[in-house]
Design a protein that fits this description.
Length: about 260
């Protein structure tokens, strides 16, 4: 069986057998490799995610402890355990009863309440150069209060009334800093509140005052004391008898009395 039989030399038949054997072995190896590849589990390959760097060797944790917060810094110095931290910029020492340095609601403003004109002498012609400046003798200044009695805690309306009592129109600067509304004690000894203490607007306010036509300014008094510059704490004015006076420059009104009831 192994001896070559045929017309050709024996070496030819041996070479043919050797090539056939090698071909068969190569085919078997290829089949075995293909089967091994198909049956073997796929190898996991780390893939870098978009937007993130590929994973590298794990970093060593820093063995040095974190520096301790110094007194006055860090969250523990501003809020106790279980408390809510105060937002930056907010005040932690505000008092519910504290009074602001200035009470902007007590600004003296023009009052347009309708009222009757004041009788005056017949008007004279206006000079060609226009209305003349109002002298102190040409104006009157009055003080009014909306009601003669108020309860403590209410906000009475105080008024300053300017009237040209001359025979001709005139011009007067009614700048807020040149006028004032003041609350005094009933005997006129103690000055309790002034419209210029906490709010003192300075603006030029030139008015042409028509004879007999009132020009009125009003303020809603908060019922508390004040001092020049609003430097001291304001306190509630108790029940009692009081008076209000007004002025424009050095022209002072007659007092208007009123009561504050409990």
């Amino acid at each position: 069986m192994w001896e070559p039989v045929g017309p050709l030399p024996a070496s030819v038949y041996w070479r043919r057998r050797f090539v056939a054997i090698l071909s068969t072995v190569a085919a078997l190896v290829a089949v075995a490799w293909t089967v091994a590849v198909l049956l073997a589990p796929p190898a996991s390959t780390p893939t870098a995610q978009p937007g993130r760097a590929a994973m590298t060797a794990p970093q060593q944790a820093d063995p040095s402890p974190a520096p301790a917060s110094s007194p006055g810094t860090g969250p523990s110095s501003t809020a106790g355990e279980g408390s809510t931290p105060t937002p930056a910029g907010s005040s932690t020492a505000e008092s519910a009863t504290s009074e602001p340095p200035a009470t902007t609601s007590e600004i003296v403003l023009p009052d347009d309440t309708p009222r009757a004109a004041v009788p005056v002498p017949p008007s004279v012609p206006v000079p060609p150069s226009g209305p003349v400046p109002c002298t102190n003798d040409m104006i009157s200044v009055g003080a009014e209060i909306d009601q003669p009695e108020h309860r403590v805690g209410e906000r009475p309306t105080l008024r300053l009334v300017v009237v040209n009592i001359s025979e001709q129109p005139c011009v007067r600067d009614l700048d807020g800093a040149r006028q004032e509304i003041v609350v005094w004690s009933g005997d006129g000894v103690d000055r309790l509140w002034s419209s210029n203490d906490c709010v003192n607007p300075t603006t030029v306010d030139l008015r042409t005052l028509v004879p007999g036509q009132p020009v009125v300014f009003a303020v809603r008094w908060a019922g508390r004391t004040s001092t020049p510059g609003c430097a001291e704490t304001r306190t509630e004015v108790p029940a009692g008898a009081y008076r209000v006076l007004t002025r424009v420059d050095d022209v002072i009104s007659q007092p208007a009395p009123f009561l504050r009831n409990p």
